[in-house]
Amino acid sequence: MASVPMRELSGSTCIVGVDESDEIGTLPHKSQLTLHVEAVTNAVRDAGLAVSDIDGVFTAGQHSPATIAEALGIVPRYVDGTTVGGCSFIIMAGHAMLALHHGLCDVAVISHGESGRSGVGVSPRRDTALPGQYETPYGFGGAPTYFSLITTRHMHQYGTTLEQWAQVAVSTRRWAALNPRAKNREPITVQDVLDSRPVVWPFNILNICLVTDAGGAVVMTRADRARDCARRPVYVRGAGEGAEHVMLTQMRDLTASAATRLAGQKAFAMAGVAPRDFDHVMLYDAFTSGPPIMLESLGFCKPGEGVHFFEEGRSTPGGTLPINTNGGGLSYTHSGMYGIFPIIEAVRQLRGECGARQVPNARLSLVNGMGGMLSAAGTLVLSSEP
Amino acid sequence: MSDRAEPLRPLPHPVTPEARPYWDGARQGRLMIPRCRACRRAFLYPRVACPFCSSRDIAWEQASGRGRLHSFAIAHQILNKAFKVTPPVVLAMVELDEGPRLLTNLVDVAPDPTALRCDMPVEVVFERLTDEVALPMFRPAAGAASAER
Q: B73–A200: do the CB atoms touch at under 8 Å?
């Protein structure tokens, strides 16, 4: 699968700085670009570096990397604007690894800012031509109208139930209760999820992520330089990506993600690890059905069995495989392209900075995210050790 | 103001040149699909190269109009402001007997998950939006009602 040179890249680069924007949540007083700039300056400070040290700029979404560089007042020698959905930032950590390894840049920043709730300083959506012709005349539009079809087919094929999806929301909320930055922290029950407002069956509102304003940034450099930074470095041991479709009709199997399988295989092979090796897992949870299907596509279990990680309590505080310890897109924050935030949480866990929600002895963490409707995927294997 | 009622749905937009036979067919009450002459597989959405074998030798044919409900969802809330049909609306993915899948609405059914099941047989019907535009939709296939109960 992965070639020998990819194995040699394992552990060669590190994440040395992470942070959110000054605030996350409902922020009508802040533009999208402000969220970027706050996040980058905070993450660079976390690393013990200066904005002027950045020479590689990576961002996805409405703004180009040139816009971010200009706002920061720097002239980078490497830019990447790969935009394949919310996992783009996870994919970019792999791209940054390559660019750093080959000396194309020395300090890379991956920046996210999105005024997803308040819409301050945002641009019109792009790439709506195909949905406009074939989907919006039927009332499709908005992620719940599509991800619901994936979910219904999974229920048909494997017998998964509304109660089992609800367990994902309950588990994730238990983590959010331990995170002071999480938006929704009150405990919920399976019955609360089942009784919440119907949006698009099989989803009620508590099956669906938040809609917030937030920024986040990640700073990376090569391992040799990382040792001089302010914090304990977190090593990128494996990285993988894949992209299958954009239109849901083109997804080969609605119940399994080809992009996720590919991204996971590449990342695990590069790192030389298997699913059983992880202490901590972050999965992109735009919907409650997403994380179980991702676990299946990544090979943690057989198809149809991903929900068991949640209903048996393995994923919760004190469980054997803690999942989405920041409270996830479901309860912590979800600005629209959530992928930067699972990286930030994994780094904080591996540094041991997470207080009440700290996973004891977390050394190996998985970050996996989707773009679109399981359309694209990025996987990272992160470790506190090289 | 026209005396014709405004359509409750956004019209397909932009209609692209490679999809013209699809929409011309729909206006005439026919579901047209492209088929690759090289590998013989039919596909949607319309493209100038076959997504299975990359051949550029594509022909159009009229589909049977029959298929199966591959998946469905019931929209209680419409997020698209241009869509003015009163919810609930059954959102559907249909797999045609010829193979291609499309997104559509399931009509002539109760918007109730217990009344619907994946893989139930469906058939095409057309809803006219304007003189120029009709949309393919699907309903339970005739004779299939007993299978749903």
A: yes
How far away is chain B from the Cα of A147, in angstroms, using its nearest Cα?
A: 9
| A137–B129 CB contact, under 8 Å | yes
Of the candidates A129, A144, A203, the beta carbon closest to that of B14 is on A129
Question: Which residue in A has a C-alpha nearest to residue B96's C-alpha?
Answer: A249
| pLDDT confidence band for A7 (50 / 70 / 90) | confident
User: According to CATH, what is the number of the domain A4-122+209-383?
Assistant: 3.40.47.10
For residue A330, give the DSSP letter: I
**Bridge partners for A206 per DSSP:** none
Interface with B, mutate which of A128, A146, A150, A152 (most B CBs under 10 A): A152
- What ipTM score was computed for the predicted complex, to two decimals? 0.93
What pTM was computed for the model?
0.96
Q: Under 8 Å CB-to-CB from A139, ≥6 apart: which residues?
A: A145, B9, B75, B78, B80, B83, B85, B89, B91, B105
Domain coordinates in residue numbering, chain B:
17-148
Q: What angle do CA A56, A332, A307 make, to 5 degrees?
A: 105
Smallest CA–CA distance from A248 into chain B, residue: B103
The string of pLDDT tens digits covering residues A328-338 is: 999 999 999 99
B118, A120 in Cβ contact below 8 A? no
Active site residues of A: 284, 332
